[in-house]
Request: fold
Amino acid sequence: MTATVAGIEPPPGEPEQVSAEPGSSHPGEEEGRRYPSTIGGAFYLVVLAVVAVSVGLVSTGSWRLGVRWFGGALLFAALVRAVLPAKDAGMLAVRRRWWDCLLLVATGVALIFLAGSIPDQPL
Reply:
């Protein structure tokens, strides 16, 4: 049985070609990369960690502080997305840069504003 490269079988009598694509590995070999491939991926993990802390703050009863942290994380993500080029932004790059930044800033500012403007309610 012969292996194919890009779906084309080699003519009979010629040696098989091995794929030289970046990221390809030998059969049975596991590539267990456990780090982000871009600086934006590292910042994305930082944003996720801050969001996790904010959800923990909200669940313990300090909801205003937790929502403010969440909004701050979104503002930080917008700043990182605005500064990094698209190839380095990692998972922070979802759409065009201006659209990503606009949505992140609008959501972050809205959360911070709402956390400060909602009056205290008696229990």
